[in-house]
Amino acid sequence: MFEIVSRRDLSPNITEMKVKAPRVAQSAQPGQFVIVRVDELGERIPLTICDYDREKGTVTIVTQTIGISSAKINSLKQGDAFTDFAGPLGRPSDLLELPEEELKKQRVLFVAGGVGTAPVYPQAKWLKEHGVTADVIIGAKTKDIFTYVDEMRKVANVYLCTDDGSEGFHGMVTGLMKDLIERQGKQYDRCVIIGPMIMMKFAALATREYNIPTQVSLNALMVDGTGMCGACRVTVDGQTRFTCVDGPEFDGHKVDFDEAMRRQSMYRDNRKTHPETHNCKCHG
Amino acid sequence: MANRIPRVPVREQDPARRATNFEEVCYGYNDEEARLEASRCLNCKAPRCMGACPVHINIPAFVARVAAGDLAGAAAVIGADSSLPSVCGRVCPQENQCEGSCVLGIKSEPVAIGKLERYVGDWAIAHRDELPVSPAPRNGHKVAVIGSGPSGLACASDLARMGYEVKIFEALHKVGGVLVYGIPEFRLPKERIVAEEVKSVKDLGVEIETDVIVGRTLTVDDLLDREGYDAVFIGTGAGLPRFMGIEGENLNGVFSANEFLTRTNLMHAYDDSFDTPIYTGRKVVVVGGGNVAMDAVRTAKRLGAEAVIVYRRSEAELPARKEEVHHAKEEGIEFRMLTNPVRVVGDDKGWVKGIECVEMTLGEPDESGRRRPVEKEGSNFVIDCDVVVMALGTSPNPLIKSTTEGLQCNRKGCIEATEDGATSREGVFAGGDAVTGAATVILAMGAGRKAAAAIDSYIKSKPRQ
Question: DSSP 3-state assignment of A191?
């Protein structure tokens, strides 16, 4: 069992938990994820690692309530425990592979949306620790649902935008990106985008215009998370890849986002499908 | 003469009924049936069955003890060579091994060795309390076993019996490897059999830690250097699914057999009290002809779908066990032989609506010795379906290879190991599907046991530090 040592609400439906998982904390790197199971009846759910403390042996996760399993996770209290907490899984961020000298020269832009903000944090923090202060665009529909802004400000230059103009730049992340690059004359050597699939699709289209090499972190459906099932198949540059072992980060200019979004919605309308109760809208 | 007695038929759940549930198909022998069947054995002087058993169980000796009603004795005979009799009695391809070479099979039917082994294994589980095992005194050495499938369990229990402190590291949340995620409940009950076999390994003093992915959570080198293990056994199986590489394979509704079976077996998706979903639609087409294909198609049927096997060769070449094919047919599975998919057809929302196939004919034998299937030009046709399951075989997971420097693998990604499991890295041994590619439970178990013996002599030969 993996105990929740602290828990706080970041917004009405987004929760941050620090979980005691010494082995995971020991090996975790920015960009990786864990697979958790709430209880003996639960699904295996992939969650991106948002921070880790090797000394205390804790790993931080941030979860947004979307379906049954995320609601179960968010109903857990401090002192409760996950039945399973396995990881770290996936490849660490490409940033970690850069030689020290090259890394120091990098001008990095992160684009974060929704619950994707927290997973950007360990990457920005890692860069800061390695002498690089990145720019981070954080987008939200409205100012009340921003998460991880204060944490992020400690490790990076933060630029906020809201769809309704309630805080920061009035517009979407792509609009703010354009403003930074075209009006403020900023230049970037690479970009990492983490957030809802549709946001990653359009933000990656924008960085392609600017010729900025771009990584996106995909949140595909998974079962085992170790390369066994292939539920997380994604097409990158015309090739089928497994998000769990080949990703979760891929070249954002080569991902087939439309397929990825379609595959992500596989169980949306029919969580437990048996033919007699079959009401899948996709078949008319 | 003993062989005048016909082979005792084994009782099975009615096909129409069992096609709607996940309970075990075969009920196994009762005491009377087992003794009668055991009495058919001729007790040959040069028993061919033993030679055909991958782990050389002394079959005539255990069968004679069953006939005499000495089940503790029978269990001890099997136990000398096999640590998973209840499992192997259920899933071994006996028709190609022990039973396939039984002398009785020449003129009549072979002794039902598999069913007898299962009977003895199940008896031993039920009477385990009467057969106390005291863990051997510890010899002060530690061995790490990676993977809790058949090879890992067998290796760990042998080492524990020799006095080693053994810890198994399992990536998934449940212990048993392919026995829990792959083979369905209706063929191998998870709680009644697999969990019990695992318990008997734990009773020997073996520790098991789940949720540890070696290659990610820890590396092989961490185990040797940081955690102080004297040797490591890699029994990580062949878990990576293959796909055909045809158009439409990433449509919604196309699954690997691994995913389809893992959702059902490991995650209990067929049981509404569990959260994991599974999608079957009305009709499921399973591509492939091996045991995994049979498991997937029979699972689809039990989930309420119309279920079809599509296989590119003819029935004679089906690699699945005959018993599984027979059971599948009884349950109403449709077999479309000499049929090869060329494309998965999707609807305008990106969901599967059919699978386009071509008819095949058999040409000259290929390198596998089986006649090569040749496409009949222009014979394309579409089978309407909602789900396609690809059961085309699996290969070893590259995670350990890619994180263990100096560990040699062949071009298929299988770890290179000697007959007794030694790899290119000192102190690192391997066995089972991770070495051979997808094979059988009994071969994996045998490899685990051989490696245990080799690990013992390796550690004993090392100078004490």
Answer: strand
Nearest CA in chain B to A240: B250
List chain A residues with CB under 8 Å of B210. 84, 86
- Is B75 a member of any domain? yes
Residues B301 and B290 in one domain: yes
Report how many domains make up chain B: 3
List pLDDT tens digits, range A21-61.
999 999 999 999 999 999 999 999 999 999 999 999 999 99
So what's the pLDDT on residue B132?
66
CB contact under 8 A, B347 and A282: yes
Residue B128 DSSP label: G
Residues 6+ apart with CB under 8 A from B14: none
Asked if B211 lies within 8 A of A283 by C-beta distance, the reply is no
Which of B130, B164, B199 finishes a domain? B130
**What integer pLDDT is reported at residue A276 of this predicted model?**
37
Nearest to B173 among A37, A265, A273 (CB): A37
pTM, rounded to two decimals: 0.93
Angle, helix B31-38 to helix B113-126, in steps of 10 degrees: 140
CATH T-level topology, domain A94-217: Rossmann fold (3.40.50)
Q: Which residues of A touch B402 (CB under 8 A)?
A: none
SS3 state of residue A108: strand
Give the CA angle between residues B87, B415, B164 to the nearest 5°.
Answer: 60
Class of CATH domain A2-89: mainly beta
Alpha-carbon torsion B65, B66, B71, B72, what sign? positive
Tell me the ipTM for this assembly: 0.92
CATH code, domain with B163: 3.50.50.60
Size of interface A-B (CB pairs under 8 A): 142
| Residue B376 falls inside a structural domain | yes
Reported as a single tens digit per residue, the pLDDT across A196-217 is: 999 999 999 999 999 999 999 9
Buried residues in B18-48 as b, exposed as e (16+ CB within 10 A) = bbeebebbbebbeeebbbebbbbbeeeeebe
Residue-wise pLDDT tens digits, B98-138:
999 999 999 899 999 999 999 999 999 999 888 766 678 99
List the single residue in B with minimal CA-CA distance to A71.
B275
Domain with CATH 3.40.50.80 in chain A: 94-217
B375 φ, ψ (degrees, to nearest 5): -70, 135
Asked whether residue B136 is domain-assigned, the answer is: no
Residue B110 Cα, gap to closest chain A Cα (Å): 38
Of B336, B368, B394, the domain-final residue: B394
- The 3-state DSSP class for residue B129 equals helix
According to CATH, where is 2.40.30.10 located in chain A?
A: 2-89
Measured CA to CA, the distance from residue B414 to residue B396 in angstroms comes to 6
A66 touches chain B (CB under 8 A): no
User: Please, which residues have CB within 8 angstroms of residue B370's CB and are 6 or more apart in sequence?
Assistant: B313, B317
Within a domain: B386: yes
B229: containing domain = 142-239+396-461
